[in-house]
Design brief:
Two copies of one chain form a homodimer.
Chain A lengths: L2 H12 L12 H7 L2 E6 L9 H11 L2 H5 L2 E4 L3 H13 L3 E6 L4 H9 L3 E5 L7 H11 L3 E2 L6 H20 L5 E6 L4 H13 L3 E8 L4 H8 L25 H8 L4 E3 L1 H15 L9 H8 L8 E6 L6 H9 L9
Parallel strand pairs in A: 1-9, 2-3, 2-5, 3-4, 6-7, 6-9, 7-8
Chain lengths: 331, 331
Amino acid sequence: MSDIDRIRAAARRLDGHARRTPLLSSPFLDRIAGRRVLIKPECLQHTGSFKYRGARAALSALDEATRAKGVLAYSSGNHAQGVALAAKEFGVPAVIVMPMDAPQLKIANTRAQGAEVVPYDRAGGESREEVCAAIEAERELTLIKPFDEPEVIAGQGTCGLEIAEDARAMGIERADVLVCCGGGGFTSGVALACEAEAPGLTVRPVEPEGFDDVTRSLASGKIETNATHSGNICDAILSPRAGDITFPIMHRLCGPGLVVSEEECLAAMGLAFQRLKLVAEPGGAVALAAALFRASEIEGDTVICTISGGNVDASVFARALATLLPPEGTP
Amino acid sequence: MSDIDRIRAAARRLDGHARRTPLLSSPFLDRIAGRRVLIKPECLQHTGSFKYRGARAALSALDEATRAKGVLAYSSGNHAQGVALAAKEFGVPAVIVMPMDAPQLKIANTRAQGAEVVPYDRAGGESREEVCAAIEAERELTLIKPFDEPEVIAGQGTCGLEIAEDARAMGIERADVLVCCGGGGFTSGVALACEAEAPGLTVRPVEPEGFDDVTRSLASGKIETNATHSGNICDAILSPRAGDITFPIMHRLCGPGLVVSEEECLAAMGLAFQRLKLVAEPGGAVALAAALFRASEIEGDTVICTISGGNVDASVFARALATLLPPEGTP
C-alpha cells in the first residue's frame, strides 16, 4: 500500500472517533507574525494531542485476535494517553512504560484511561527498550511505537489531510506548514498527506533549542542525535533522534527546520491563551512560536501551524501567563 | 417572521462568517458531574464569544444605506468586540460606549478591531443610555442593543441550532442545556432554536450568586432586578435585569435557573483548562460550573453546557489555575 493510501485508510477508520479539528486564526496573531497565521488546534483532539490519531489508527489496523491480547507502548505522556484511550475504546489491555520523571498529570491521565503504567528510571539510566522487551517476553502484547511505525505515521498524517482540505477550500495554494517535531511521526505523516493533496504546502519541523536533531539532520542529510535527553520544558518532543522510517520521508519532503527558545514557547503559549482561547503545552507551542517570532525564516503570505498538545501542569502554564502580565511596578 | 424563521435566516447570513463550534467532552468531567457533559465552546468563536453571532446577524439585517452610516453599541466587553468585528467586516464605522472600569483587555481588543471607544463613568453614576442618546442625536448611527433586540437574539440563537443538530446526530432526545445568562439574549435565542429543533432539550439559565435576577424572575413570573451591578468576577453577565423581549421567551421556554459561586466558576475554569484545553472567562464558565458542581439540581443522564467567553486577564486566570495546584506544603 502506498503511503497516501495508508493515510486515507487510516482516515476512514478514524472517522467518527478522532475529532475533525478546524483551522483557527486571530487578527492579533497575524499582526505579530506579519502574515496570515492559521492554527490547527490538535490540543482539542481526544487526550489533548494528535497522538490519539496515530494510536487509534495503529490499534484499528491490528487483526482482532492480536489486538485482544493487548498493547504495549513507551511514552513520556501524550502517546501514552492516546494508546490508553484507544485500547479502552477497543476494550483491550494497555501497558505503558513511562519515565518516573514524566509529568505527573500525564501519568495520572494515562492511568485514568485504564492503562497499567510501568515506571522506569530514565534519569538513572534504565533502558525503556529493555523494560519493554521484558514485558513483551512475559506477556503477548503488541508494541505500538510512538513514531517510527507506518500505521502511527498514517494516523497522525490524517491531520495533514484535513489541513490540505481546508487550505484548498480557503484558496491557499502555497504556505509553510510548521509542525511541532519530536521523532518525526507527525511531521512525516503531515508531509506525506500534503505531498499528495496540497503539493504547494511545504512542511517544516519546529524544535526547541538544544533538541534540534531533525533540523540538523535535514541540513546534513543524515540522522543526527541530541546531546541531552531532558532538561527542557518541551517534554513532549525531546526524542533523541528521528526514526529510520520518519527521517527519509522528512528528508525527501520537508523544508528546513526551525528552532525556538523556551522563552518563545512560553510567549506563544500566552498568546494562544489570550488570542485563541486555547491551552498549549510547551512542546505543542513550538510551531506557533516559530510562526510568531521567527517570521524572517518563513516565506509567503500564509503560514499554517499545529498546536499539538495541551497537557500542561498549572505551574508551568502560570509561567506562560506571566509573559502577558505587565512588569511589576507598571502603573 | 416567526422567531425560528428569523434564527434560520440569521444562520444563512452567518454561514461562512461565524465559526461552527463542535460539542466537546472529557471522561474526567463526566466523572465529576456523574453524567455525560457536552460542551459547546463558544470561546472558540470569533472575538471569543457568541456575541459575534448576534452582532453579525444584526448588522447584516440592516439595509445597506443605514449600515453604511455606522453602528453604535454599549457593552462592558464581549458585545463590544462582536460589534466592532462585524462593523470592520462590513467596512462601516462602529462607536462603542464602554464603562471605564471594563477589563482593559476588552477595551484594547475593541479598539484593535477598529472601533471608536467612548468611555463613561459607570461607577460615578453616568448613564450609558444618556451617553448613547447624545451620540445618536449627533451622528446618524444605528444602535445595536446587546440582548433585547430580535436580530441579536436570532443571531445568538444560531448556536442553539447547532446544539440541536449535534444532539440529534448523537441520538440525544432529552437533556438540560445550561446557558451562561446575563440579559437573556443568548438564553432566549438558544431556547427558541431548541423549541423548534429539539423540543426534548430544556434550556436553563445559569447566573453568579448575587446576580441571579433571571433565576428569581423565572420563579416569580415577573422581571426581578439585581441589587448591585458590579463586584463579581463574572463581569460579562452582570446585567441588572432581563429584557422586555427576552424575559417572556425565557419564561415560556426555560427550566429553573441555576446559581453558582465565584469559587465554583474559578474551579470550572481550571477544569476547562486541564480537561478541555480551553480558556473560559468567569462569566463564560458559570454553565460548566453548574454542570459540575450543582449536579443534584440537574436531571437526566446528559447535560449540555455553553462556554461562552474567553476574554480573561492573565491575573484572573492565574486564580483559576491555583484551584488545580496542590496546597502549599503538600509533598
